[in-house]
Amino acid sequence: RRHTRPPCTRTATSACVRPMQMLLSSPVLAILGSSVAAAFTAQPTSVAGFTATYTAATPIVAQSSPAARQALFASIPARHGHVSALAASSGEPLRICILGASGYTGAELSRLLLRHPHAKIVSMTSERYAGSPMSKVFPQFACASSLPVMTKLEEVDWSAIDMAFCCLPHATTQQVVLGIPEDIRIVDLSADFRLSDVATYEEWYGTHYAPELQPGAVYGLTELYRDEVRGARLVANPGCYPTAAQLALDPLLRAKAILADDIIIDAKSGTSGAGRAPKEATLFCEVADGIHAYAVGAHRHAPEIEQGLARASGSPVTINFTPHLMPMSRGIFESIYVKLAEGQTPADLEAILREKYADEPFVTVLSDGSVPQTRHVRGSNHCIISVKGDRLPGRAIVMSVIDNLFKGASGQAIQNMNVMFGYPEDTAIDGVGVFP
Fold first, then answer.
1. 241-409 adopts what CATH topology?
2. Any catalytic annotation for residue 16?
3. Which residues form the Semialdehyde dehydrogenase NAD-binding domain (predicted)?
4. What are the domain boundaries of the chain?
5. Which tens digit of pLDDT belongs to each residue from 329-355?
6. Where are the beta strands (DSSP E) in 66-170?
7. Are 434 and 377 in contact (CB under 8 A)?
8. Was domain 64-219 assigned CATH 3.40.50.720?
9. DSSP, res 62
10. Among 345, 5, 330, 315, which residue's Cα sits nearest to residue 159?
11. Which pTM was predicted?
């Protein structure tokens, strides 16, 4: 192989086992399933078998001190940068593991990575469908004979992996990342590492099981934080609503062209954003022929949007954000109402956005007075933005559309992977939208 990890020689002790046992509380065990829980809460002899089986570098969780884990995690990009260089230059495909492959984001990742000339999916996990091919869950993969059979998490051979995509439920990835060998780079599609402030995360999602790793996680909105993504070991893939909102508003706030204390986001989403697990709210009869608001005043993406906009503004930002569920499978449409700064016009906003995204392959700013539509970005990694003046003086409407499964999840995850490993950024995700 182009790089081979030496066998782990660390002796398994209670220090190796106890952190996982503390991290995996009963709610987390319920999410992961008994088989995964058993793998992470085994006796020391089993932990020794775990490291020997994978012949991998010592997992971060083996460091008994939180401070030591944080220091180790922060130093990973510098110590393992050669892995990315070798992967990009060796001619061998990047070896990919998809954790949680049987959900919508996992399926979209699989579909796109099959087109990637520098990547090969060598491992896919699903606790529910372990032992089954992907085509059993998604029949469209019947022709994808190169995909491996799905396995349980504890069966992954980490010594054969270069890159992992985590498509696991919220509050699950934190524990899993702690157990992944340190020279494997990760893009996490859950919310587990998106919020930099641990207290804010716990207010909205519950206990943070790896707070010492949070400072080392990079927020992966590629167009805005490309340089940080390039050197990251762990990238927190943004949420769908935050992606559309920040692409539209970040340049305007940085230019001081709009007021930071008067932003209203009226958002619409397709049902796939709620995931694949059966829910009454996403049953056909509950969604068809209508539209309804949900999580009014209390949606988890609000603090993520505010975090990003505050970073752009340089001061705290509070938004009014209301999401709505639409009778469609894919798509995000955000109508964003803003107040112009003194002397600014809607044309100025458009000019700022055009300049910012002039060289970006996946962001288009309309200039002919037209408005974007979700069907124009369906099945693509593109974001289309438009600015219109309001009838009220001093106000404007900024519209932003994306495909929530593509640019809002799996497509952006691959975009981040391409940046991390030095591949052309649009590799495997450069197609136009599917319409009709």
1. Dihydrodipicolinate Reductase; domain 2 (3.30.360)
2. no
3. 95-232
4. 64-219, 241-409
5. 899 999 999 999 999 999 999 999 999
6. 94-99, 119-125, 163-166
7. no
8. yes
9. G
10. 5
11. 0.83
